[in-house]
Amino acid sequence: MADRLQTEWAPRILSIVRIVAALIFMAHGTAKLLGFPATEMPTPEFMSLSWIGGMLELVGGALLAIGLFTRPVAFILSGEMAVAYWMFHAPNSVFPLVNHGDAAILYCFLFLYIAFAGGGPWSVDEMLRRKA
Which residues are the signal sequence here (predicted)? Predict the structure, then answer.
């Protein structure tokens, strides 16, 4: 019974985790580029590193939320978070709790997992695959 339940629900939970993580991640992009939700962060200059990060977060988060191009998008976002950690957090301290890089590390490895696991059954990718 437990094996059947796990087998049946594991792919669905993968979809739920992907959607929730993508929506929260996307909020970083909307805050940077659209000022919503309002933060003390200034709007980045066009084509600056922060602006590019915001675009990746906004567009990549939206694509990941709906599950379109899930694997390559998740791989790119995983790389973005690795770069963000090593460029902006790690130089401040070796301890993620101190350098506030724990979210970047979690996103990095969560997106890396999704890049290999796929978007789950509740994704546009899966819908397109079934139609083909």
Answer: none
Nearest in space to 96 (alpha carbons), one of 77, 82, 76: 82
What is each CA distance from 38 to 27, 45, 102, in whole angstroms? 10, 17, 22
pLDDT in tens, the chain (132 residues): 778 888 999 999 999 999 999 999 999 999 999 999 988 888 999 999 999 999 999 999 999 999 999 999 999 999 999 999 999 999 999 999 999 999 999 999 999 999 999 999 999 999 999 998
- In angstroms, rounded to a whole number, what is the distance separating the alpha carbons of residues 91 and 119? 33
Q: What is the CA radius of gyration of the chain?
A: 16
Running DSSP on this structure, what letter comes out for residue 85?
I
State the Cα–Cα distance between residues 91 and 83, nearest whole angstrom.
12
